[in-house]
User: Fold this.
Amino acid sequence: MAMHVTIEDRRGLPPRRRLIDAEAPAGVRGLRPKGLSRRTIGQVARFSVVGAGCTLAYALLYSLLRTLAPAVVANLVALVATTIVNTAANRRFTFGMEGRAGIATGHAVGLVALALGAVTTNLAMAALLSVRPNPGPPAELAVLLTAGVIATLVRFLLLRTLMADRRPVPAPAVG
Assistant:
């Protein structure tokens, strides 16, 4: 039984974009997780790419600032900087929102995400300090990144709920 895979899809997206949208893997295998649309899978993939970049930026910025300031200050400054970039990038790349439409909602969600991240990471830091009074920057960073993952999952759900449903869904191609 031979399987034929085409490079062109109905929307005419380049292969790189189809891969990010999770269409190429789904089309090649002919499988898609039940209950998840291609749109959702694509959003999760793009959100993950943006998140990985922002997490790396956060870790570098926190590590640099930690040599100059206490952990709470370094954490807050790194969170503010990366949340601004993260919100703008997700608004544009993950949810395809351009221009001024929905920008207030995007920034409001960014502020909620910032507050959520600050509370989550500071509680994690407090828990670490209660167990190890002088943990050192590598342990602090590990705890902060773990707490950040939890906050990120909630951020995705918030962003998806408040941004993604405002975009029109393209009609399926006939043919």
Residues 1-10, 15-29 have pLDDT under 50 and may be disordered. DSSP finds six helices and no strands in the chain.
